[in-house]
Hints:
Blueprint: E1 2-3, E2 12-15, E3 18-28, E4 36-43, E5 49-55, E6 59-62, E7 65-76, E8 80-85, E9 91-95, E10 110-116, E11 122-126, E12 130-138, E13 151-156, E14 161-165, E15 173-177, E16 182-187
Amino acid sequence: MATSSDIRKGLCIKYSNDIYKIIEFLHVKPGKGPAFVRTKLKSVTTGKVIDNTFSAGHKIDDVRVETHKFQYLYNEGESTYHFMNTEDYSQIQLEKDALDRPDLMKEGQVVTVIINSEDNMPLSVDMPASVVLEVTATEPGVKGNTATNATKPATVETGAKVNVPLFINEGDKIKVETEKGTYQERVKE
């Protein structure tokens, strides 16, 4: 049994007859009144995101979890994704709701899968902080024709849409932040 002071990003808790993963939190200590923790919770079964506030010292039921490295193999249709354990080569399949940014995953990428240690059910998938993807389609842009940070839409090899600076062309490799799906930098190889 944990308390509200143990809340951190990525913690899985039992709340309201479901298992939720904490995706954002903020400890607030107002000048008047007791402290509290404002959280944003994502259901690992339905994908629904809710806001909740826990008072200071509130007891929460944390879920014992294990993390394993899995390699993304392929997706079947629009909703089922297949992964392989990199240690024992066993395979699992997950629904799209368990993934945060499935549009940024390319085949062969290694991700961390969080598994409930009580019943060995996969709860969610944590992607790396950033991924390197190739731009497959974008309109040609000219460097130096604006005075501000202008961007244009681009499609990367996984099919995701990312806004990139004007100097990015088709065939360039870019680093994309997975949490927000935003352009970070161009990668030269």
